[in-house]
Amino acid sequence: MGKVYLVGAGPGDPDLITVKGLKAIEQADVILYDRLVNKELLNHASPLAKFMYCGKDPNHHSLPQEDTNKMLVSLAKKGLTVTRLKGGDPFIFGRGGEEAEVLAEQHIPFEVVPGITSGIAAPAYAGIPVTHRDYSSSVAFVTGVINKGIDKDEYWKHLALGPETLCIYMGVKKLPEICELLTTNGRSVDTPVALVHLGTSEHQKTVVGTLDNIVEIAKDIENPAMIVVGEVVRLRDQISWFETLPVDEAVAKLTYQ
């Protein structure tokens, strides 16, 4: 019996992967990697390792999740060491929990290697702390795409009146609706909002506005982008740091398939 490592590759900058995650890449017989994984990390694999692309984008899934699950089980049962390399953190909107469930049901040995999620890293590289003693003592990581059957108004009402900082994944296409639902349910239209596109990469772009005007300001921003809502966004003007760095070839270059 082999073993599976569910590894978070981080948000883009290859230097942000953990030491344990890097070791899992180095010792893998097979690496199954996602779209948002920086391909530079694959250079650390063994020359004998095989690579399988399992990426998903908003409009197309190259491999259904069920097939990925079956592949993990099949490869491990062949006695192989398998590293499932996922962008960000495997347990934060990464379907790592679903894969772990299948592995546990099939009695496949596995380990989870946490990664730095874009909900923390993208704001940090944009000069936005998601918590701050003077601005926010609570933060929520949420998705802009909610399951059918969930009451949309109740979902956003809870968020509008709850956590002081919202980090919203997969929400760019729904930005107008998100802004409307938040303001309708109690968030001030003057609440600061930032969108961080390709966070932590050399192509990072950040735009800032309010719930009242961010839709127009961010009309040219595409996925992947992190939406940050809350008073902490005001700190960007003071502590923005990444954009002031000189261009460095070591900074991640995200490529997509």
TrEMBL record:
Record key words, sorted: Methyltransferase, Porphyrin biosynthesis, S-adenosyl-L-methionine, Transferase
Enzyme class: transferase
Annotated GO MF terms: uroporphyrin-III C-methyltransferase activity
Ranges in a coiled coil: none
Superkingdom, natural source: Bacteria
CDD domains xref list: SUMT
Methyltransferase recorded as keyword: yes
Domain Tetrapyrrole methylase: 3-214
GO biological process: one example: siroheme biosynthetic process
UniProt cross-references to Pfam families, sorted A to Z: TP_methylase (PF00590)
The protein's Enzyme Commission number: 2.1.1.107
Membership in a protein family: Belongs to the precorrin methyltransferase family.
NCBIfam families, per the entry: cobA_cysG_Cterm (TIGR01469), PRK06136.1 (NF004790)
Listed name of the protein: Uroporphyrinogen-III C-methyltransferase
Organism this protein belongs to: Staphylococcus gallinarum
Record lineage: Bacteria, Bacillati, Bacillota, Bacilli, Bacillales
Gene that this sequence comes from: cobA
